[in-house]
Known about the structure:
InterPro entries: KFase/CYL, KFase_sf. The chain has helices at 87-90, 116-123, 157-165, 188-194, and strands at residues 2-5, 8-11, 16-17, 38-41, 43-44, 47-48, 61-64, 73-75, 95-104, 106-108, 111-114, 130-136, 154-155, 170-173, 211-214, 226-233, 240-249. By secondary structure, the chain is mostly beta strands. It starts with a strand and ends with a strand.
Amino acid sequence: MIATIENFKVDLSKPIDISIPITNTDENPIAWYIEKPVIEPVKFGEWVGKVSSGMSSTNFNNIFFNPHGHGTHTECLGHITRELYSINQALKQFFFMAELVSVSLEKRGEDLVITKEAVEKALNGKTPEAIIIRTVPNEDSKKSRKYSHSNPPYLEEAAARFIRECGIQHLLIDLPSVDKEKDEGRLLAHKAFWNVTDVNQLNGDARLNATITEMIFVPDTITDASYLLNLQIASFENDASPSKPVLYAIV
């Protein structure tokens, strides 16, 4: 199916899913010092909610997971504020013009960072509604990596501020966080992107409707270009939700 949107066309029959699914296997990526997700049937005494058990006509599972640590997730500024803000209230539109850029990491002491200069060069003057950052080198192990205590790469504060100043509302990245793993709670990139100066009382120009999506994976077969992004979330009244960003090539 070909759809025409604002004078360009996209082929809706060829979605490009850049999410990492949540599983209860050792292949599931993990961040923030937690264990892998748990997906298991409900049990009432001897009864097991699993068709193969012979006791149930349906599969009836409980799922225990953390959106920030177990896969692709989208978060709003409620992730860092004293007051509660929900991703389900922050994200009310779901289709955006997005730019996919591949960005090489720069060594800073013992850290690997995404610099403002690298992001600015990759965007080359474009100001899309959403930016999708694929870090280089891009390895399949991102889909199952155990990030805890590994000091993963991160986005420097100036790069996050530049993205905000470009008017970009939605930031998607293939890392467990835009910030350094152990930064003593400073969260400089989160704050710069959402324009939050005080987590206890929001300034009037804080970006309530801007989102950050972390732990995506974009295969090398997908070229850097402009795409139509469908950013799908589950309806959780929480600072973050597991999400399913899907790209559509412009034809």
